C-alpha cells in the first residue's frame, strides 16, 4: 500500500537569513501593528519560539512559506541565522488559510503555567509588550468563577471583562449566564451586563442597596421580571432546538403528500370546484417551499 509522503523534514535546521527569499515583493514600510510589536518583544526576550517554514529551491536558496513577520523582525534585530523547518512542497496557501486566536481562558491558563514554571510577571509582560497590570488581570481573571462555567466557556472568545460581572453572581447563576451566552452566540460585555441586571437578588453575591433604603422593592421586582423573561427565552430556545429535526421531517413528509395529491387530476378538479381558496393557498405554500429549498 502506498504511503502518504511527509510534508516536512523531521528536524530543525539553522539557515542564514540571506539565503531565504520571500514570496511577495518588498512593500513600503508602514507603522508597525500590535501583532508585529509583540512578536518583536517576544523574540528580544526569549528568542524565536516558532521556527520559520521554508522550501529548498537550490542548494543554498530557500523560499519562505510561513513566518514573514518573524523574518522581518529578525532582520531588524540584526540576526544572521534563523531556525527553520524544511517543507517538502512549496505550497503556502495552507499556512494562512485560517487565523486561530487563543480564547481568553486559554490565555489565563498559559499565564498560570508560565508562572508555575518560574517566569516572572515582569518578563511575561515584556515578552508580550503589555503593561504588567494586564498580566495580573489575566492571572486573576477566573477568581470566583465556578468550574462548571469555566468548562462551558473555555473554547469561546469571551470578552475578558465578562468574568468580572459573573463574579458578582452565585455559581448557579454563573452557569445559567454561560448557557445564555452559548445559546445566543453572544459573549460581549453589554450582553453579560444585561444578564447581570436581570439577575434575581438571591442569586447575587452582594445584594445592592438602594439609597435611603427606598426603591429596593421596585428594583427587585424589575430584576426578577427580567430574569424570568430571560430564563423563559432560554427554555424556549432549547425546546425549539430539540424539536427542530422532528418538525423538519414532518414538514418534508407533508410536502410530499400534498405534492402527490395535487398531481391527481380528480383531486385537483374537486378542489378547483369546491375549495378554490384552499387550492390557491396550497399552491402558494408549495411554491414557497420550492423556493426555500
Q: Summarize this, please?
A:
With 293 residues, the protein is α/β, with parallel strands linked by helices. The chain is built from twelve helices and five strands.
SS-based structural class?
alpha/beta
Q: What's the level 1 CATH class of the largest domain?
A: Alpha Beta
- Proportion of residues in helical segments: 40-55%
What is the name of the CATH topology of the largest domain?
A: Conserved hypothetical protein from pyrococcus furiosus pfu- 392566-001, ParB domain
Report on the architecture of this protein.
- By secondary structure, this protein is of the alpha/beta class.
- Helices cover 55% and strands 11% of the residues.
- The protein has helices spanning 34-46, 68-76, 104-116, 121-128, 132-139, 147-153, 162-166, 171-184, 189-197, 216-262, 265-274, 276-292, and strands at residues 8-16, 20-21, 52-58, 61-66, 81-87.
- The protein has three domains: 8-94, Conserved hypothetical protein from pyrococcus furiosus pfu- 392566-001, ParB domain (Alpha-Beta Complex); 162-246, no CATH class; 247-292, no CATH class.
